[in-house]
């Protein structure tokens, strides 16, 4: 069982700082472990469950940046906050680029550290970072491979074509879509495929940051700007200079913050909170929301003028149920991923299980599919995922969506016979698709395709016959 209190590791060579941090965080109900250098920190985190690491950058043995690299390499999904000395923003930017969730400039005060810790833990609860995985052959052949996006349905192909056109332009982009449809993935793809890719990609989750901290988060503050501002701090706009600023959940901004953001978009300049110097930055803005901003405008909770400023290029992402033909490809992608991560050897799904996946409505979209498959891979006894390994919701799905013509069968009457028919039809449709794809990829070579599909050559030939697929003529 996991310990009840959130576990925080503090790594700093200054005893005083360790003591102060431990005292503050212990009082806030965290369990704090303190170590003196990076090497000790690494040893500790290899042997204990942790929720957060706070590390100084300059330390003996192993410095904070190296520690951060190690944590990222271990793929622990563990947030790291770095402590930087006053006036070393470059280090902070470097750390954020390496995956640190936030940073604190020394000296800082109690409220500041509390806020940053609270935010980091909350952000972590809201998102799950992802480590690169070795893609399978099928995945590599996905037309969106260059963007790290899986899918070849017409709806997702549209997304690629917008990306092709706008990735390397400074234009502001608004990504919309239901939860879990890949908004963040697309935002990162925009950055990675632009000439800004070596510059920072800075993400602000507008839903995770307390309202009263938002302005200073975005624009920074000068020392003394408010009670707890005991040193000055640049905001995310400054950190993102020459790079990309990703405003996630932009619909959560208050009207007041919306006005401030609008001004930056109009004039490309702003001041830090409590500052008088005007700061100009060169930032490409990408925003995302799962809210219907048009509706919010009608209700008076979102500024229309800001909407038009953000919506220069809209990228609406389709819900998974609108592109269920991508499910087999996504399944392949996630099986590869979880086999690697969980050290399992699951090769596929039973026809019944596949049919369930295709007929389910996926309110949580790809993230939900990902979670369902992770669980299924974990629980699968042999090499094949069975219906039993799927979540309750998915197993309970009975409707076949009219949106996917390929699995429509004669009568939709809900009787068990009708259901069986539908399940069968869905299963063979997926089988057919997987087989066509494998053949595609091996230029029709049945032996190679069979190997790819991990079935025997004979089995494949039989299946092909069953599904009415002809073998390529030799020669
Ligand atoms: N087309 C895709 N191919 C592969 N993985 C995808 C795809 N779309 C989304 N994912 C994965 O699904 C998960 C959810 O994606 P992401 O976080 O980008 O969604 P989101 O729209 O930002 O969701 P939310 O609104 O909940 O923040 C991530 O793990 C992402 O890598
Ligand atoms: Mg998101």
Largest sheet: 5 strands, parallel
Provide the low-confidence segments as ranges.
Answer: 127-133, 399-416
Distance between the termini: 62 Å
CATH topology of the largest domain: Rossmann fold
Rg of Cα set: 25 Å
CATH class of the largest domain: Alpha Beta
% residues in beta strands: 5-15%
* Ligand names: adenosine-5'-triphosphate, magnesium ion
Describe the structure in your own words.
The chain is an alpha/beta fold. It has helices spanning 15-27, 38-47, 64-74, 89-97, 110-126, 137-140, 154-166, 183-192, 211-219, 236-239, 255-267, 293-298, 304-310, 327-342, 351-359, 365-379, 392-396, 416-441, 446-453, 457-466; strands at residues 7-11, 31-35, 52-56, 80-84, 102-105, 173-176, 201-205, 220-221, 233-234, 244-248, 269-271, 278-280, 284-289, 313-316, 348-349, 384-385. The protein folds into 3 domains: 7-126, Response regulator (Rossmann fold); 154-317, P-loop containing nucleotide triphosphate hydrolases (Rossmann fold); 321-466, Orthogonal Bundle (Helicase, Ruva Protein, domain 3), CATH 1.10.8. Helices cover 45% and strands 13% of the residues. A hairpin with a 6-residue loop joins strand 11 and strand 12. It is globular, with a radius of gyration of 25 Å. It starts with 6 loop residues before the first strand and ends in a 9-residue tail after the last helix. The protein binds adenosine-5'-triphosphate and magnesium ion. Residues 130, 149-151, 177, 179-185, 290, 333, 366-367, 370 line the site of adenosine-5'-triphosphate (ATP).
């Amino acid at each position: 069982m996991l310990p009840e209190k959130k576990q925080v590791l503090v790594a700093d060579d200054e005893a005083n700082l360790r003591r102060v941090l431990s005292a503050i965080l212990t009082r806030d109900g965290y369990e704090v472990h303190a170590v003196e250098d990076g090497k000790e920190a690494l040893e500790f985190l290899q042997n204990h469950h942790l929720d957060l690491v706070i590390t100084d950058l300059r330390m003996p043995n192993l410095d904070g940046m190296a520690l951060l690299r190690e944590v990222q390499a271990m793929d622990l999904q563990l947030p790291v906050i770095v402590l930087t000395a006053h006036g070393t923003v470059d280090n902070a930017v470097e750390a954020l680029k390496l995956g640190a969730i936030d940073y604190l400039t020394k000296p800082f005060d109690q409220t500041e550290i509390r806020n940053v810790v609270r935010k980091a833990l909350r952000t972590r609860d809201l998102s799950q970072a992802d480590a690169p995985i070795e893609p399978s052959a099928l995945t590599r052949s996905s037309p969106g491979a260059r963007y790290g996006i899986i899918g070849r349905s017409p709806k997702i192909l549209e997304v690629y074509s917008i990306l092709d056109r706008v990735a390397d332009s400074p234009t502001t982009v608004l990504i919309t879509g239901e939860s879990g449809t890949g908004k963040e993935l697309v935002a990162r793809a925009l950055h990675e495929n632009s000439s800004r890719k070596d510059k920072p990609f800075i993400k602000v989750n507008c839903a995770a940051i307390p309202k009263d901290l938002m302005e200073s988060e975005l624009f920074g503050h000068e020392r003394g700007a408010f009670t707890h501002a005991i040193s000055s701090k640049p905001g995310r706009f400054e950190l993102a200079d020459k790079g990309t600023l990703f405003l996630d959940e932009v619909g959560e901004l208050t009207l007041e913050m919306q006005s401030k953001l609008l001004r930056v978009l109009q004039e490309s300049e702003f001041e830090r909170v409590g500052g008088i110097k005007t700061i100009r930055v060169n930032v490409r803005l990408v925003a995302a929301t799962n809210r219907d901003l048009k509706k919010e405008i009608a209700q008076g909770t979102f500024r229309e003028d800001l909407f038009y400023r953000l919506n220069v290029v809209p990228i609406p992402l389709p819900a998974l149920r609108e592109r269920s033909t991508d499910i087999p490809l996504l399944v392949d992608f996630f099986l590869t991923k979880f086999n690697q991560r969980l050290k399992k050897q699951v090769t596929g799904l039973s026809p019944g299980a596949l049919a369930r996946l295709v007929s389910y409505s996926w309110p949580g979209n790809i993230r939900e599919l990902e979670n369902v498959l992770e669980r299924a891979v974990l629980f699968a006894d042999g090499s094949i995922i069975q219906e039993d390994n799927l979540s309750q919701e998915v197993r309970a799905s009975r409707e076949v969506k009219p949106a996917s013509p390929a699995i429509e069968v004669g009568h939709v009457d809900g009787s068990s016979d009708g259901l069986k028919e539908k399940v069968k039809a869905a299963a063979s449709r997926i089988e057919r698709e997987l087989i066509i794809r494998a053949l595609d990829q091996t230029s029709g070579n049945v032996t190679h395709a069979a190997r790819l599909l991990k079935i025997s050559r004979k089995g494949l030939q039989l299946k092909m016959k069953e599904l009415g697929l002809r073998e390529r003529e030799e020669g």
